[in-house]
Specification:
Blueprint: E1 5-8, H1 14-28, H2 38-52, E2 54-60, E3 63-71, E4 74-80, H3 89-100, E5 103-109, H4 113-121, E6 125-129, E7 141-147
Antiparallel strand pairs: 1-2, 2-3, 3-4, 5-7, 6-7
Helix pairs in contact: 1-2
Length: 148
């Protein structure tokens, strides 16, 4: 993580956070690209997500590389730019959430095997699987839990 800093993000950072989210999401799940417009993404990050979550970011030389949004008991979002993955950024951001809450849950798509391996390697256990009928993307997903 040479040269990478972590900090709590403010409202002015939300447009950049939305870009990290969309870039990572579209790279990992290209068949779902275009599900939301850039304007909708910015509105989500600066509206409901910012109001309900603590949002942290990882940056190098002023460029946001990764983001995590979490609240009591839940990780709502964790995204790392594709070119920044594998550098420990996701682990460092996950540790911020773990330090703040003794138990965490999160959802990830069943087909996102890299994310699933990432969470499982960091102590998360699969609790439940769904057929995706309850999520916006209609993708089967997995609920994970972690207890410190």
């Amino acid at each position: 993580m040479a040269g990478i800093g972590l900090r709590r993000l403010n409202i002015e950072d939300m447009p950049a956070a939305a870009i990290v989210h969309r870039t990572s999401f579209d790279a990992r799940l290209p068949w779902l690209a275009g599900l939301h417009t850039a304007e909708e993404d910015r509105g989500y990050w600066s509206g409901p997500l910012f109001k309900s979550c603590e949002i942290w970011g990882a940056e190098r030389n002023g460029k946001l590389l990764g983001v995590i949004a979490f609240r009591q008991g839940w990780i709502d979002q964790l995204y790392i730019l594709p070119e920044a993955q594998g550098q420990g950024i996701g682990s460092a951001l996950l540790e911020v959430a773990k330090a703040a809450h003794p138990e965490l849950r999160l959802w990830t798509f069943k087909c996102n095997t890299e994310a699933r391996r990432f969470y499982e390697a960091r102590g998360f256990k699969a609790i439940e699987e769904t057929d995706g009928s309850g999520n916006e993307e209609k993708e089967p997903d997995v609920l994970y839990g972690w207890v410190g």
